[in-house]
Amino acid sequence: VAIYLHPATKILAGHEEALQFIEKSYHNLGFRHLRRLPVSGAFHTELMRPAVAPFKKALEKVDIEMPRIKVFCNVTGKPYRNEVEIRKQLVKHLVRPVKWEQILHLLYSRPQEVDFPRTFDMGSNGVMKGIMARVNSQAAKTCFIV
Predict the structure, then answer these.
(1) Residue 108 half-sphere exposure, CB side, CA atoms within 13 Å?
(2) Tens digits of per-residue pLDDT, 12-38?
(3) What is the pTM of this model?
(4) How many structural domains are present in the chain?
(5) Does 23 share its domain with 83?
């Protein structure tokens, strides 16, 4: 799994031969739907390992500061704690799955009496709000498409 998008959707990535096998056998594997995405690589998998060293070297030239707002790491699904962690996790992001579903759970899990924050879906034409609705339908009610 390259991306945990929401409870009913995961994005798979891998060798072309493996993807072709999945395309032919997906019903037997228990998948209901399958659609190939138009991407150029097996991002967020070990197949990206050759890019790690050059990316890490390039990242050494970049100044990284703690964000002024809470930023969640796609690798851990948790907020970044410091600049060292940001640098370390950005490198891991090349070869580890994106935990989008887990991040949404952390952002929108709250006691019943606590209101959800207003969220703005900017640029996706409502796609992100739709994903949010599949993870937390109540939180999606406070999401506005911009």
Answers:
(1) 23
(2) 999 999 999 999 999 999 999 999 999
(3) 0.85
(4) 2
(5) yes
